[in-house]
Amino acid sequence: MTTIESINNWFIENFGAITMEQVEGWFVYNPDEKLLFNTGLFLGLFLVFYFVYGFLRKTFYLRLTYVILFSLFFYYKSSGIYFLLLLLSSVVDYGLSQIIYKESRDGVKKLYLVISVILNLALLGYFKYMNFLIVTFNDMFNGNFALHNVFLPVGISFYTFQSMSYIIEIYREEIKPTKNYIEYLFFVSFFPQLVAGPIVRAKDFLPQIYQKLNLTKEDVNNALFLIIGGLIKKTVISNYISVNFVDRVFDTPMSYTSFENLMASYGYAIQIYCDFSGYSDMAIGIALLLGFKLPANFRTPYKSTSITDFWRRWHISLSTWLKDFLYISIGGNRSGSFAGYLFPSLFFFGLLLWGMSSYNESIIPLIIAGSSILLFCLSFLLSSKRKQTLVTNFNLFTTMLLGGLWHGAGAQFIVWGALHGLALAVHKIFMEFFPSKKDKSPNFLWRFFSIIITFHFVVFCWIFFRARDFETALQVINNIGQLTFEPELWKTIVLGYKNVFGLMLFGYVWHFLPETFTNGMKSVFDKTPLLIKAIILGFVYWIVYATAVAGSQPFIYFQF
Known about the structure:
The chain crosses the membrane at residues 35-53, 60-76, 82-99, 111-130, 150-169, 181-200, 220-241, 338-357, 363-383, 390-407, 445-465, 493-513, 534-558. This protein is mainly alpha-helical.
């Protein structure tokens, strides 16, 4: 007969005795042990939180306050004392939003909007770009400014963009402000998507706050399916590939063969997808359990048939945000602006300087610079609507450049954004010459090769995204460029990394599964009894615990 004592003995045998020091560690910030969705600590805390949440479901402000407190604790466990930065930012933005809404004079409203944007970007700029600007200044002008010891709060880019969207939508009169600060803080600090998205728009989320909390059986099924899938993607696939192969190769690419560099590039492509989409799936699932619907953030992006299609499928909440609040703000496809022309001009000027400064060592950088400028110019000079296409392409390029810079302060991120901006411009002119027929879908071969080409371009761009700096990215590319056909060597490498390559294959097969197959799996899961679903979730967490490598790995997008 099972007794409390036998259960206690089993727990101690498998997990060890719990000490007061461990209990303290559950609630005190530790930079080496952040509170992640894929940890047993989060599962335990969330179960306790959710038990109480169930009793508060019929309340309003009490429930909001309870979630806010847990959200602030969640952020404290991720960034320590910097949770106060979130509070400070929210107080300022809430106050300015109230002033903008009540102000009737357009000029004054715009002034307060500019103040809000400047304050948000200055905050983001200090924590994320201060050292980058110092290094750039020192390199360009032989300066000797010392670097700052700046801590980067987790997810600062995400909640800054979310807060900015709230104020901009009020300025554009698309929404009305929340009734009070509690409601606004709930929107900004909502823990499922606080540190890595999806970036939630106020006009989509705020109406849900005022609706009656209604959790259906379908919502629970969807939530558990997403959480289980997200856990497997993040911990079983992404973490293992990262620690056991990808990180090693990208840290010292010249210590590995051309084939290993190539496979590491393919490995990172599936790693970042499983990592980020896994987090998004878990965030959406957890939010569903709380009664809130967050937007989908990924739609099998490597099935894209063009780079334009890719950005409709990858990090959808960010690409939508950039389109609505940056691309349209600088003119979109209607008109040019100073900012729209400035950033591409600065980039191409810098690219040309890089090519000229490297001329004595190699002519290749200069050829790359000249070819890039020529290709971008041809993308609008060959267009039948030359003026409009010029404006559109410059604004697109600016959006992607700044999107790259949003991801990180480094030349490699700027190049990553520029490559995507250039590809979008080229695709636009391609579609002008070879328009797709609306009443006829492309044949299989055309679609197949479109997916292959788009996928490999994206993988190439990921090399810059993953490399620690621009020079390392060039080393990886140069190494891959020296690839020769050596089947015996390849076989030896594959056998040496069979577990890694097996998980990479599993990740890609999962990603490319037909939607009908995925829907079928979901249908079977929906029909499974709730108890079995809970057991499956517990089993997945056990797998996460059992296969944990070198501790819990932070989500890639936490650094952004």
